[in-house]
RNA sequence: GGUGCUGUAGACAAAUUGGUAAAGUCACCUGCCUUUCACGUAGGGGUUUGCGGGUUCGAUCCCCGUCAGCACUGCCA
């Protein structure tokens, strides 16, 4: 039998890191089992669903490399199927009309809480007589459809991650609503648990892999599978992603959408790599850098952790830096150009390309996120330099002025400045001024960049020279002394 | 309030019929490399396995209790 899994996001927001991680696990399992990965958009909440979120979810999954084999399917295009399933439940006597108003239900729960009882629906309309129903109808009340949940029933399943899980029917909150009240139609909009089950049956999903916040839903859904006479799939509940405080990562934590991560300069391969590690450990592995394909060959739901996975920015940064550092400059430069542009640096895409590529090669080891490039290269752009106190102090040391003076003269005499030329000048100045090479290097660094630390000095100088910025900067430094 | 789950170094975590506690990765510290920072590389420190009992020759693992954290408890998904 072909393994079939799915990711079923609701388009009520941008693609969230938690959804994406669930997608990762589903994708890995599908690829490990040579199965199919299905994308289904759960848009039955008409109030909150937006088509732009659907687009964001699709593009986010694609960006991460989480390609789906089938879909996207939309629940709003399948409403007939849900209505038919609900009708089946009614016909079988497993579901019924409930005329309670939201206000009545609120009051009921308040009373229960006041008495120290667990809030739940008390199944009060389960056995309404036809006269009672007619009376509610006459009042103009529109019923929801509730699915009967036997309080005495124990629901048990073998979870692929958590082992045996059991749930008592009485802890499921009473008979569950499967359809909203309809305006004119007898059966209104279907609700999540019903739609999910109908779809998973219809799409022949064999393994439902989702977050552990769905565990109670799984118990309810198993009852629906049985009521609809369908085979119950396997379930695997993955741990939640936690923030630094150990709470479920939510929008309040700031950066949580895949879009945000992309804008901050994380590479899709790195982010996907990190997400595989959120709750899963590769077997006998000492290597944590790998592609989704590599991870898929080793992926096993049995090695998924039960404890929540705390989100670790430092580790994500490290993984991202590993990918960045391995990337060839001619590819990386293309990713960096938008960051320079949005920072307002003057970048001529025709004439500057090779200069930018050299610049990229120089600062690559310093990059953790793409966006860092703005800060890391700011000293190489523009006429003006801001000198740090440390640099000014250094420049005022005895002999520095003469070093800079001679360097300026040397630049003026040279047509172009290659790496070898720069080295030659440094050697020449060192000799004629009778100082240590380190003093010359640091003098040039302070004079050219205004700082005492930074990327390779000779390369920096060559790049500045190509932009004809070196002489002016050194002269300015001299004027400060 | 109820139900469920989880608890191993700062973080992610390994230890899969109970067998010397802690592999590995990140972070941290140190040496090397470098004009410097970073990268790289070679080392290093860090644990009463939440706590208390029990079973056992032996417990991170099984049992009981306890504490803490989290999730769920909708005419949301």
From TrEMBL:
The keyword Nucleotide-binding applies. One of its GO terms (biological process) is glutamyl-tRNA aminoacylation. Coiled coil: none annotated. It is an enzyme of class 6 (ligase). SUPFAM superfamilies: An anticodon-binding domain of class I aminoacyl-tRNA synthetases (SSF48163), Nucleotidylyl transferase (SSF52374). GO terms for molecular function: ATP binding; glutamate-tRNA ligase activity; tRNA binding; zinc ion binding. Residues 3-318 form the Glutamyl/glutaminyl-tRNA synthetase class Ib catalytic domain. Belongs to the class-I aminoacyl-tRNA synthetase family. Glutamate--tRNA ligase type 1 subfamily. This is Glutamate--tRNA ligase. The gene is gltX.
């Amino acid at each position: 039998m072909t393994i079939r899994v799915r990711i079923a996001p609701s388009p009520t927001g941008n693609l969230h890191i938690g959804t994406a991680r669930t997608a990762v696990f589903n994708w890995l399992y599908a690829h490990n089992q040579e199965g199919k990965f299905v994308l289904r958009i759960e848009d039955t909440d008409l109030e909150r669903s937006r088509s732009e979120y659907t687009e964001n979810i699709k593009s986010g999954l694609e960006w991460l490399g989480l390609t789906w084999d089938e879909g996207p399917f939309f629940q709003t295009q399948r409403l007939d199927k849900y209505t038919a399933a609900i009708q089946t439940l009614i016909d079988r006597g497993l579901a019924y009309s409930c005329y309670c108003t939201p206000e009545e239900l609120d009051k009921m729960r308040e009373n229960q809480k006041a008495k120290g009882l667990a809030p739940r629906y008390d199944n009060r309309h389960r056995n309404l007589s036809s006269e009672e129903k007619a009376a509610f109808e006459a009042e103009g009340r529109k019923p929801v459809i509730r699915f009967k949940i036997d309080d005495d029933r124990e629901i048990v399943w073998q979870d692929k991650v958590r082992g045996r899980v059991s749930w008592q029917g009485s802890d499921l909150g009473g008979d569950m609503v499967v359809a909203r009240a309809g305006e004119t139609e007898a059966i209104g909009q279907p609700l999540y648990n019903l739609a999910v089950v109908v779809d998973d049956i219809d799409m022949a999903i064999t393994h439902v892999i989702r977050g552990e916040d769905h565990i109670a839903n799984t118990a309810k859904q198993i009852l629906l599978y049985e009521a609809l006479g369908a085979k119950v799939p396997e379930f695997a509940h993955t741990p939640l992603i936690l923030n630094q405080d150990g709470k479920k990562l939510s929008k309040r934590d700031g950066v949580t959408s895949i879009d945000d991560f992309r804008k901050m300069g994380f590479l899709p391969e790195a982010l996907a790599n990190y997400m595989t590690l959120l709750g899963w450990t590769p077997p006998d592995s000492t290597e944590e850098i790998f592609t989704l394909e590599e991870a898929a060959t080793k992926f096993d739901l049995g090695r998924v952790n039960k404890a929540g996975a705390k989100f670790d920015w430092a580790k994500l940064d490290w993984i991202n830096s590993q990918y960045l550092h391995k990337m060839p400059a001619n590819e990386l430069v293309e990713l960096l150009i938008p960051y320079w542009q949005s920072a307002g640096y003057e970048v001529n895409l025709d004439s500057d390309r090779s200069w930018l590529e050299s610049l990229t090669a120089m600062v690559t080891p310093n990059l953790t996120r793409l966006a860092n490039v703005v800060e890391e290269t700011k000293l190489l752009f523009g006429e003006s330099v801001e000198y740090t106190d440390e640099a000014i102090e250094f420049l005022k040391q005895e002999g520095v002025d003469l070093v800079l003076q001679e360097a300026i003269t040397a630049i003026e005499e040279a047509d172009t400045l290659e790496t070898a030329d720069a080295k030659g000048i440094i050697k020449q100045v060192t000799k004629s001024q009778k100082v240590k090479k380190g003093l010359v290097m640091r003098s040039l660094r302070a004079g050219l960049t205004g700082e005492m630390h930074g990327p390779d000095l000779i390369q920096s100088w060559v790049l500045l020279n190509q932009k004809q910025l070196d002489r002016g900067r050194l002269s300015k430094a001299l004027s400060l002394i």
